[in-house]
């Protein structure tokens, strides 16, 4: 597909906060790839990088979509809809100013430059295009943040199918590691699997990315993904449906959890049914509760209204925004939402809703001074040779100024 892809967000955006406070929806990771990368792969638009219509505070941090040629068209895509072959066929078959919808929600549209410019400035107006309906039974549609970990195992399987040409290593390269069902273990160039590590793929495939390291005596059960340059520490236990994103370091016990990238859970402790953003750090023996003692459904706090509602789900752990951290021996309650750039340290449960830029000791919450928060960000990012740019600083400043305590 040669038409450039333009990702957009809709009214469900806030359902993915705090993860989407610092990223567009297309940059959410589920499976191995981000939502934007999945669409690029499925549409065979591999020469493109994900770009989209950005909220003001994200400009400069992520790539904003533009059309340079007045005769060029744009393929608008809603990344909440998980792509597959059938959707791709419909998208590539679109005529000018025609779109695909499901229950009134736009999935994709092929826009002329004029319509693209109008929608970019004033928002989507389905009156401007003709539409065809796609049966919702054929779709996986993300509506809430916890659905990311719920579909993670299946997405690992699908992403492996998209990436199959990249796998160059096999069990013969690691004679002192233990592989079960090795045909379902996919290893990229530069990965290291130390003696005694166990990769168990009977229940699903295992992906090991470029230059990742699986240390001795750790156990990984599929479906799981250990992405590029990440480290699984000695004796770690990685259960099914887990993704460790690029440049992360993990240890202890992890089940059905997604780490986006540059985040650490390097020591013992348990996390399950959770999603962590970038640059998070969980102190030694941090534990997340993912199931209530009475086995009832989990309530979470709506990010906008700050009122609790029943999710209808039995398993939800912690959803944590970028740059948030826990101290040693921290405990996270079932259904905790923690914003961007928070410090949680206590031998008690913190609140289930933690606003961004909070300094939390038990039930006491005070604002995290912005200058101190930026100093900590900069130090952490320098450790991974990543620069804190002026655009990134401005994004965080905008979030700080919009946070109410």
From TrEMBL:
Keywords of this entry: Acyltransferase, Transferase
Record protein name field: Glucose-1-phosphate thymidylyltransferase
Highest taxon listed in the record's lineage: Bacteria
Stored Pfam families: NTP_transf_4 (PF13562)
InterPro entries membership: Bifunctiontional_GlmU_bac-type (IPR023917), GlmU-like (IPR050065), Trimer_LpxA-like_sf (IPR011004)
Gene3D superfamilies to which the protein is assigned, alphabetical: Hexapeptide repeat proteins
Transmembrane segments: none
